[in-house]
Amino acid sequence: MNLGPTELIIILVIVIVLFGVGRVSRIGGELGSAVANFRKGLQDGAKKEETPSEDKA
Question: How far apart are the first and last CA of the chain?
């Protein structure tokens, strides 16, 4: 199942016709911020693992 550039353009045109340009750009922005937050969460998790935990004696 290979999608070439022609198929991707057709899919993009269909999505724009169905949802409209404004809504597609808003969805893209929300998706971008979600990915950024996900990456930030991964980095925060990695930082927590690097710090040594204190032993409670």
Answer: 58
Cα–Cα distances in angstroms (integers) from residue 52 to residues 4, 15, 46, 47, in the given order: 49, 49, 12, 10
Residue 14 DSSP SS3: helix
Over the chain (57 residues), the average pLDDT of each successive run of 10 is 90 91 90 94 80 59
Global pTM exceeds 0.90: no
Encoding tokens for residue 44?
């925060």
Both structure tokens of 49: 């693992």
Q: Residue type at 57? A: A
